[in-house]
Design goal:
Strand content: 15-25%
Number of domains: 2
Shape: globular
Largest sheet: 5 strands, mixed
Number of strands: 9
Order of helices and strands: EEEEEEEEEHHHH
Length: about 200
């Protein structure tokens, strides 16, 4: 397998950079809020990345004309100090050097899912977004007496993924309120609670 990058040019979303450290470039006219990227070594196998950008440092996703390092979802022109791009490179034990990266699918800000639905990613994004919306609605309603215990609950990484997602979102909201104040927490709750359910034709 030769070194190559494969984006979704017919939808206006492409890959640049290198297979080891791919960059997503959005020229779709819309905002990308989620994507799935598959990397592969010479044997055709490698890690799968299912990234929902609303829970990262970019709650609004990748705007039209924007780009970011696909691994770690780091903006190219992020203000202030940031990780070296080298620290975000794909690590693939057991698969040898990464020689290809393929952007399989994207979700736009209106919820439209485009691309291949490998690994059940359409359903996965739908489940994750529903959890985020539910927790966002609690914050929007001012139910901090429910969110704070949830954020502090130990949980288990081996438990149901939805439970882990619920705690993670509650923690983000509680931290936002604690360190940035009610207005910032309300704004984040508004973003989370208004996420669209993914849809496709």
């Amino acid at each position: 397998m030769e070194n190559h990058l494969e984006g979704l040019p017919k939808y206006g979303v492409t890959l640049s950079g290198s297979p080891l450290n791919p960059v997503i470039e959005n020229h779709s006219g819309r905002t990308v809020i989620a994507y799935m990227l598959i990397a592969a070594g010479q044997n055709g196998c490698g890690p799968v990345y299912q990234i929902l950008l609303t829970t990262t440092m970019q709650p609004a996703g990748i705007p039209d004309g924007g780009s970011l390092y696909a691994i770690g979802a780091m903006p190219i022109n992020r203000p202030g100090p940031m990780q070296s791009p080298a620290s975000a490179r794909i690590v693939s034990p057991g698969h040898g050097p990464i020689v290809s990266a393929t952007l399989q699918s994207v979700v736009f800000a209106d919820g439209q899912f485009l691309g291949a639905d490998e690994h059940g990613v359409f359903e996965l994004f739908g489940r994750r977004i529903k959890v985020i919306v539910d927790v966002g609605l609690l914050a929007k309603a001012g139910a901090w007496d429910q969110l704070e215990p949830l954020a502090l609950s130990p949980g288990s990484p081996l438990g149901p993924p939805a439970d882990f997602e619920r705690r993670s979102i509650a923690t983000l909201l509680v931290h936002e309120r604690r360190f940035k104040g009610d207005d910032a927490a309300d704004e984040l709750a508004k973003i989370f609670s208004s996420l669209p359910a993914p849809w496709r034709h």
